[in-house]
Every structure is written in C-alpha cells, then in structure tokens.
Specification:
single chain; alpha/beta; 10-stranded parallel sheet; 27 strands; about 35% strand
Amino acid sequence: MSTIISRRRLAALFASTIAVAALGAIPQQSAVAAETGPIGFGAGTTGGGGATPVTVSTLAAFTSAVAGESAKVVRVSGLITLSGQVDIGSNTTVLGVGSESGFTGGGLRVKESTNVIIRNLRISKPVAPADGITVQKSTKVWVDHNAFSADRDHDKDYYDGLLDITHASDHVTVSWNTFKDHFKGSLVGHSDNNSGEDTGHLRVTYHHNQFSNVYSRLPSLRFGTGHFYDNYVQGADTACHSRMGARMLVENNVFRDTKVAVTTNRSSDVDGYAVLRGNDLGGAATEISQTGSFTTPPYSYTAEPASSVVASVTAGAGTGKI
C-alpha cells in the first residue's frame, strides 16, 4: 500500500511541477519569440549574418570594426566611454557581451546604411547633441534587447534622445528594449518641415519595450506609419504622439502612472491619426482628434493580450536576455 501511495504522490508532484513550469514559461516563451529575427517593419534584417565574430573592448577597435559595408559581427566587451557618436556601416551586427557591456556618454549612428542589427547593449547618458542611437537615412534596422538610460537630474536638453529615427529612414523594428529615466525617449521624424523627404517612409514597429520614468516621445511620430504593440509604459507625461499626418496603431499596451497615453493634436500644426485597440490605459487620458485607417500591418505578428504584457516585458526586456 505504501508503494502505491508513494507512486501516486510522485505522479501528483510530477504533474504539479509540469503545470507550474508551463505557467512560468508563458512569459519566457513570449520573451524569446522574436530573438531569431525581427518581427514587424524591420523583418528581413540580417545584419552581419554568419560572419565570424570579432570581440572588441576599446573605442578605437570598435570604430574600426564597424566601418565599411562588408558583413561583420562585432561583439562589445565592457563599457566604452564615448564623446559623440560612432558610425555603423551596412551589413553589421553589434552585440554586447553579457549584460553590462555597451557605451556611455554618447551613442551609435546608423547613417546612410542598410541591414544593421544592434542588440544587448547598455547605452547610457548620451550628452547632447548625441543620441543613444540615431538612425538616419537608413533602412532595415533592428534595435533589440538593449538597455537605454540617462537621468532626470539635468535640464531636459542636457541629454539628447535615447533612440531617434529620422531623415526618411524605413523598415525599422524596436523590440524588447528598456528605456529609463529620461526626458526625450524616441523621436521618429525630426521636423514638421521635412515632409518632402519623410512622407512615404518612417515605417517603424515598437513591441515589447519597457518605458520607465521617460517623460515623452514614446514615440513621437511625424509623417510615417507606426505600430506600437505589447509595450509597458510607466510614469510618462505623454506617451504615443502621432503628428503631421502620421498613422499609428496602438495595440495591447499597458500604461501606468501616465497622464496621456496617446495624443494626435499636440505641438504641430497638422494632427496625426491613431487607432487604439486592446490597451490597458490604467486611467491615462487619450486625445484622439483623428481616427486613422491603419488597422492591419503588412506583416505577420501575434499580439499577446494586455493582461500578460507586464509579466512578459519585465521578464524579457533589456540586456542579458538573449
């Protein structure tokens, strides 16, 4: 009899363990879903592909390693201090080693390049006029699993943007990053007067990012098309800002301690458009002067419900997760 009871207990314990593991794995499965390649407008970006990785630990070595258009994979080991920005050439993958490697004081610039991946880097305190990452006149860019941060102790213009995408850049995915303690988060389209260059471009997907104590521009989008889904926003004054005719789909996000989750009618002479669905606004206001027609992105994706976003994003976003 005791043998039968023991077997039953082992069976029950095994079943319970499997159930708990399955429940605990839900956020992790979501967290790794996009790790083999970008989902969204940046789909198809391959960076350096299967090029033999080169590991660098100094600014001079890094600057040399990322130059040019040949396929390359550059691993950054340790924290490198910058003044200004380093230009990243086409067909490049930049990867941080571990969870603490990256750059401070300045940032990276992807200018007139294509097919660039930037992952697993800590990028902090980009002193103006440098952004943490600038994407300018570039296409097919994937910014994934990075940790961006500054502080709110200085004037709002002391640091520049954490991630700015400008000058007709296109086909960009921003996924599984953390953005913390900053005034100006992510600007897409730098000026109201740049319609000639930007119209028809600036197609960007943001998914599974965490924005904590970032005042605004989460993102601010001019002229382009933005898909903002499964993100977790905490402590913003103004989060999603669609302006100058931009089209934005805001889907299944969670907002906490945020004054305005989405606005289409601030700071520009021409309003933008927005479609909202499935969001948990957490009491945040919305200012939608124009409801848009962008409801079906031109790519395959699965948006998890807002009810699971906080668990997935807090478990999966940032460095050390890939």
